[in-house]
Structure formats: structure tokens, C-alpha cells
Amino acid sequence: MGGKGAFWQPIRTFALSQITSLVRRSTLRESDFVAPKYEKVHNFKVHTFRGPHWCEYCANFMWGLIAQGVKCADCGLNVHKQCSKVVPNDCQPDLRHVKKVYSCDLTTLVKAHNAKRPMVVDMCIQELEARGLQSEGLYRISGFSELIEDVKLAFDRDGDKADISTNVYEDINIITGALKLYFRELPIPLITYDAYPHFMEAAKIPDADKRLEALHEALKLLPPAHCETLRYLMGHLKRVTQCTENLMTGENLGIVFGPTLMRAPGLDAMTALNDIRYQRLVVEGLITNEDVLF
């Protein structure tokens, strides 16, 4: 009896390890579909409530006839003005309040749609990689502005149901134009105002290794949703440079995307003009070193 047990033991152990491995792989596949838990601050605005209202944070009555408290424009949370200072950064935007795709805060949009990245970015890049990577001057050549505006309206109206296929927009430059417009119209740029000076300082470092290290540190300052979107975009732009038919190098794409992805508020004209060179170097560096930085 002991002999039979000894015979079957290795087989049982092997079978158990295979089942465990299958379960682990299944769990990993399922986790691919779980949207990340991005932290988001509330977008409170002073609000006049009609009828009696109670604070949703402290549960006390909100006194007064006008401007009794504040309301989050993204999730609808109603609280006292003083309570708004201590409410956790746990805003979960509601699609009833988030009406647009373009010109909407990036983190607000992805949380409202329970996604990793804005659907504009995912859908445009998927369309471009399916039929446009070999197009000469990709991202450099502009499409018709009226049709780009049509794509914008389609996303604002239909969200991820927008049709941007070749049946509707045969010219691939319409899709590149719509993607660039999305980034230009973000209220907070993809490379945020707070992180901007750190990226600019990194671009000015002459030593390549130290410059790469500084870019890596600057990336840590980006909100998670911004960093994930930038990672996905840089991977795409790296693939664009690897397709020689389109004649687009990392330097060319840096010229196109530098001012599109990053800008500093309140700069005088001369400083802004001087920054363009370093913006190009930042984007070119992110593309070239995409596999190391992200």
C-alpha cells in the first residue's frame, strides 16, 4: 500500500502544480480587464441648493438661502465648503455629469468610463496601426480641419461607439489630427504643469545617462492616468519610427508632439519659443528610450 502511495505522489504533485498554474494564468488574464484605481480629487464648485440639504460628509444641515455649500461637478457630491477641505480624494465621476470627451480632464474621463486610458487614444492608435503606419509624413501632414472636428464631435456624442473606420474617414491624417487635437485640448496637459519644469531641466542635461535618469524621475511626478497614457502613446510612436516607409524619425515626431503634449502656463513669448527645442528633446528622448523608461 505504501508503495502505491509513493508511486502516485509525484503524479499528484505534478497535477496540482498544473492546476495551480492554470488558475494563476486565468487570474492574470482576468486582472487585465480590471480598471486601475486612479486617485482623483473632487471638482468642487460653489452651489445654491433648492430646498433643505444635508452635507454628505458630516451629515449636518447646510444652512442659508444661497451658496449653502459646494457640489462636485464630476460626481455630484454635496458638502459644506469647510468639509470639502477634508474630503478624501475618492471622486468617482458619473457619466451624467461628465458630458464630453474632448476638453475633459484626463483622469476624470478614464474614471467615468472605468478605463485605463481615454478611448480617443486607444481607438485612434488602434486605427492608425491597423492601416496607417506606412503613410508618408504620418502625424506631420495635416488632415482637413472640418473632418477632424467631425471626429471630435463623434467622440463627444458617441464615446467608444464612435465610428472612425476607413469607411467613414478614408484619409488617415484625419485620425492623426483628431488624436493631436485631443491632447491639445486637455485642460491639464498630458505632461502636467507641475511636472513640466522637471522634464525641461532633464532635457538640458548634456550627459545622456544622467538625462535618462532625470527623465525617469520626472515621470514619477505624473498622475497615474497621465503616465499610463504617455506610456501607451510612446510605445506607438516608437513603432511609427520603426516603419521606414513613413519617413518619420524620433526627432520629427518630437517636433510634432513636443508642444502638443507639454506646455507651461504664463510664459512670455521668448521663453515659450526657447522651450520648443527642449520640448522636442523630451519627446524624442521618451520615444527613443520607451522600453527603458516605462
UniProtKB/TrEMBL annotation:
InterPro entries linked to this entry: C1-like_sf, DAG/PE-bd, PKC_DAG/PE, Rho-type_GAP, Rho_GTPase_activation_prot, RhoGAP_chimaerin, RhoGAP_dom
Name of encoding gene: LOC115542007
Gene3D superfamilies: 3.30.60.20, Rho GTPase activation protein
Record GO terms (molecular function): GTPase activator activity; zinc ion binding
Record-annotated Phorbol-ester/DAG-type domain positions: 41-91
Superkingdom of this protein's organism: Eukaryota
Zinc-finger keyword on record: yes
Highest classification ranks of the organism: Eukaryota, Metazoa, Chordata, Craniata, Vertebrata
Keywords: GTPase activation, Metal-binding, Zinc, Zinc-finger
Domain Rho-GAP: residue ranges: 104-294
Protein name: Chimerin 1
UniProt GO BP: nervous system development; signal transduction
